[in-house]
Specification:
With 260 residues, this protein is of the alpha/beta class. The protein has one domain (37-43, 81-259): Putative cyclase (Glucose Oxidase, domain 1), CATH 3.50.30.50. Helices cover 19% and strands 20% of the residues. The chain contains 7 helices and 13 strands. The chain has helices spanning 19-23, 26-34, 133-143, 169-172, 180-188, 204-208, 213-218, and strands at residues 38-40, 59-64, 74-78, 86-88, 114-121, 130-131, 151-155, 177-178, 193-196, 222-225, 236-240, 251-253, 257-259. The protein has a 9-stranded mixed beta sheet. The relative contact order is 0.23.
Length: 260
């Protein structure tokens, strides 16, 4: 894994302040937030974009327009919960887990996708390969510890393969992923979420054999998929995203943002 230039030192991370003190002075809080740069981490929702083969496609259908004699322009969306950049709720992959682990998306705490983001450079992980626990520990020795509540994003550089049909094949083929030992290491750290710039943290072989999805989701750690622009991030940053409030939802599209 490569070292990242221009990282934000741990002691200077912009979100390491006392929220209670800042909330007592709202103008100071707003000034700090407005001074940060926003980086969009979400892929654009559009027809013919890549999606998992068993998931329904995304459709954006013209509903009304000025040209049709309407007073306004509007479209109808037909969207699968796991289209584009999205989050998996714990209930998504827990066929055999205890019942209280089957948390659907509207029950996920809002603050679970608001917190310190951690970018792990995984450009050296090739297609079909896995990030190991040892590599995460080596990353920590260079950049600082991963902490409870962190949102850990794996930057494989795979979003460079994102393209609409008929050019989506490369994105949908043997992507890299996160090993079971690495996932369990992050669970021991009590992270809030794991994110990837691939179709899944489980490559195709893992999905057929031993995926990390059920292990991670049973512990109420969220999984974010199909991120982009991770190469623009420092090691640590402020991450925020909100899912749609879908009753009994197994997941939701996200507008994920980093503030640096």
């Amino acid at each position: 894994m490569d070292s990242r230039q221009g990282s934000v030192p741990v002691e200077n991370k912009p979100f390491h302040f006392e929220m209670e003190n800042l909330m007592s002075d709202l103008p100071a809080l707003l000034a700090k937030l407005r001074g940060l740069r926003a980086i969009d981490l979400s892929q654009t929702l559009e027809e013919h974009m890549p999606n998992f083969p068993t998931h329904a496609k995304f459709f954006h259908n013209l509903w009304d327009s000025y040209g049709l004699g309407g007073r306004s322009l509007s479209y109808q969306l037909v969207v699968h919960e796991h289209n584009g950049t999205h989050v998996d709720a714990p209930a998504h992959f827990l066929k055999d887990a205890r019942q209280d682990a089957h948390v659907t998306i509207e029950r996920v705490p809002l603050k679970q996708l608001l917190g310190r983001g951690v970018r792990v450079d995984c450009h050296n992980t090739k297609a079909g390969e896995y990030v190991s626990r040892r590599e995460l520990q080596e990353w920590e020795s260079k950049h600082g510890p991963i902490e409870a509540g962190d949102i850990v994003l794996f930057d494989f550089g795979w979003s460079a393969n994102w393209a609409v049909r008929p050019n989506a094949a490369n994105y949908l083929e043997n992507w890299p992923g996160v090993s079971m030992e690495a996932a369990k290491f992050l669970l021991s750290k009590q992270v809030a979420a794991i994110g990837v710039d691939t179709l899944s943290p489980d490559p195709p072989e893992a999905l057929r054999t031993q995926p990390i999805h059920p292990v991670v989701l049973e512990k109420q750690v969220l999984i974010i998929e199909n991120l982009c622009n991770l190469d623009q991030l420092p090691d640590f940053f402020l991450f925020l995203a909100l899912p749609l409030k879908i009753r009994e939802g197994s997941g939701s599209p996200l507008r994920a943002v980093a503030l640096v």
